[in-house]
Amino acid sequence: MTPYRNGSISTGISDFLLNCFVRYPSWQLWLSLPLSLLFLLAMGSNAIVLITIWLETSLHKPMYYLLSLLSLQDVVICLTVIPKVLAIFWFDLRPISFFSCFFQMFIMNYFFAMESCTFMVMAYDRYVAVCHPLQYTSIITDQFVAKAVIFILARNAIFTLTIAILSARLHYCGRNVIENCICANMSVSRLSCDDVTINRLYQFVGGWTLLGSDLILIFLSYTLILRAVLRLKAEGAVAKALSTCGSHFILIFFFSTILLVFVLTHVAKKKVSPDVPVLLNVLHHIIPAALNPIVYGVRTQEIKQGIQRLLKKG
């Protein structure tokens, strides 16, 4: 504990303790194995996708630039969350410094919002490819990807940095035990001695405005794609178009579903164990990261061919 002045002399805290399934020690042992395997799978598969796109000149196209951006986001999210969770499980390293906690909060929120926005841009890419194929190369260009990346970085930085600042400015005067495996915004803010109404309101309104608008645009894009596909007359055209977009939609649907389940468990928190939302929170940072490159690698012929060529060269 360290004293500091904030209008008057009071007691502040220099670090937090992450209470990660302490009520169920057996959970820590059993969860550590699948989490470790998922972590290795996510890191390895995303690294393969990134290296393949980087080394294969045939994949230097806007669609694959967006895919590499998604893989990079998954790598950062995994590295930000999972090593600390495993350190708690294996070595009981529950303390996390004040700065590290809010830095983790910012990175998690930032890259989570970036991933949602990247899915939106990828949905637009598929919409143009299916509904306006003749204009695709003139609309989806390298310049388009560059502008999209700048938009993704800037929009989400403004929103997520504010979340971390609002939480960090609060006065933490006594309790320092976070009932979570990670430094989630409200899990940390509720330890404050101050009123956190603004934090709750900003996260709810801002989060659902950004993520909600992304999801609406994503499903609008795929609705238009489905309508266009059903009008195709050429033999095999429907199957090819659905196969091209299927992998995207599967990942987006899973991304949205697990988020919805997480929200519902928070709403019904009196009826479920408090550790259930914590578990879902951890899984939401690892399962999509492990699935994304696998689904794309299995369903995207160019990626598979690129990996095969690299293996033959090796």
Q: Can you give a write-up of this model?
A:
The chain has 314 residues and is mainly alpha-helical. It has one domain (14-313): Rhopdopsin 7-helix transmembrane proteins, CATH 1.20.1070. It is built from eleven helices and five strands. The strands form two sheets. Strands 4-3-5 form a three-stranded mixed beta sheet. The chain has a two-stranded antiparallel ribbon with strand order 1-2. Mean pLDDT is 84; it is low at 1-11.
List the helices and strands and how they pair.
Blueprint lengths: L1 E4 L3 E4 L2 E4 L6 H31 L6 H30 L3 E3 H34 L4 H4 L2 H27 L8 E2 L6 H5 L7 H34 L6 H31 L7 H10 L2 H13 L1 H13 L1
Parallel strand pairs: 3-5
Antiparallel strand pairs: 1-2, 3-4
Helix pairs in contact: 1-2, 1-10, 1-11, 2-3, 2-10, 3-5, 3-7, 3-8, 5-7, 7-8, 8-9, 8-10
Membrane topology: Multi-pass membrane protein
Organism: Loxodonta africana
Pfam families: 7tm_4
